[in-house]
Amino acid sequence: MLLYIDEEADQGRRVLLAAGLSGHFEDDEVETLLPEPDLESMIERIIESRCEVLVTDYRLSEYKADVQYTGLELIQEMQRHFEGFPCFLTTNYVPHALGKLHDVNLIFPKDDYLSDDSGAGDKNKSALPFFLRVRTKIDEYRADQRRLEEDFQALYERSLNEVLNADELQNLLNLDDQLERSIGGRVAALPRLLKEDALGPFNDLLRRAEDLAAVIENELEQNEAED
């Protein structure tokens, strides 16, 4: 689902119309919200929406003076919680927003998502239709998540039946970290247990090595004492 944030309710209605006319989203795949006053509350609303992509206006306090953040800050906070989450920043002030977002390809003029019937001109529209870009980003994100989950599951299941080598174990932990960051650490107990299970064989090997080293050291000390 696409979630659009704007302080102007009328802009939200225009986005709903434009998304439907684009042919890339059904009416029930788009939701609009007015910004909450504080950033933390807005993040919670986004999480509750279970959206797959966030599109937000840059200026969120122009007509709502109680809003304490910009769309750029909202995107940065969202991606801090959920690494790689698809986000787009739309604005009438593109030059002002450029250079403030790490990926300038996520910044679009508002004309890009307004339908031809909205009364907006098309002189600033990008070559690739905006809603096609958004749909493509959702599909890419889904594919990346599936790949991470499948790679992790395959390696984890192997770890239950055989001892992984050091590179494989490190890869398993890296995949686990990536998955945890992508879901905001909200199910941290599961990754922690998986890490403990994955590290079990490796820790056993370390303990055996330590025990063997202790035995060898003890024998060396005894030999020195006898000499």
Automatic annotation (TrEMBL):
Top-level taxon: Bacteria
Protein name, UniProt field: Uncharacterized protein
Source species: Thalassobacter stenotrophicus DSM 16310
